[in-house]
């Protein structure tokens, strides 16, 4: 199967644990560009991926107010690559505010999944859109008794610890804006981030700065959620298609 927008490969790892052979496509994290990528046709059974969600995030306005560029909508690129690869199935992960993928010849069924429903610790909620030619649906197993008080998701920006917005003499916000001061800076906090994503205690990204580590891990799918989804996909595609 082909993985698009793989990042550091957390969703890939969940699928590999289920026996899938994952080939990773280009990612900006490693200097790649999906807009210059076209896969071979008929070589992949499935395609998975999570296009950047910033364009659809509720925090978009905060990012823009502070002068940061929002990642463009790359769902059309996901659709284009899937159409070119012509797999038996595909899976797109994104926030609820994003629109579903549309690929000619495929019928898409979507499910909302929260990390703590799957045994994770966080409230992260994502939509998984599963496309097949015969309208198959995912049966994602969730816990009957899940954690009632999940913690906030591990964010790519770090933490959610807000700091007071500095106000100048004119009564206007100072340039640092709303997001400055958020995030983790110590190794202890980084390890907490790793734990919330369900990664091994000794997980690390050698060569990455602390900020880059936080961003890369926060952009990934929590392992508990990824495993539940990968198991559901394996069941769904195990029957003759």
How would you characterize the overall build of this protein?
With 241 residues, this protein is an alpha/beta fold. It has one domain: Rossmann fold. Helices cover 25% and strands 13% of the residues. It has helices at residues 10-17, 60-65, 75-85, 187-196, 210-218, 223-238; strands spanning 2-4, 23-24, 46-49, 89-94, 107-114, 125-132. α1 (10-17) packs across α6 and α4 (187-196) packs parallel to α5 (210-218).
Question: Which SSEs are present, and which pair or pack?
Answer:
Blueprint: E1 2-4, H1 10-17, E2 23-24, E3 46-49, H2 60-65, H3 75-85, E4 89-94, E5 107-114, E6 125-132, H4 187-196, H5 210-218, H6 223-238
Parallel strand pairs: 1-2, 1-3, 3-4
Antiparallel strand pairs: 4-6, 5-6
Helix pairs in contact: 1-6, 4-5
Number of domains: 1
Encode the helix/strand succession as letters: EHEEHHEEEHHH
The general outline is globular
The proportion of residues in beta strands is 5-15%
Structural class: alpha/beta
CATH homologous superfamily designation: Vaccinia Virus protein VP39
Which features does this protein show?
6 strands, alpha/beta, 25% helix, 241 residues, 6 helices, Rossmann fold
Summed up:
The chain has 241 residues and is of the alpha/beta class. 25% of the residues lie in helices and 13% in strands.
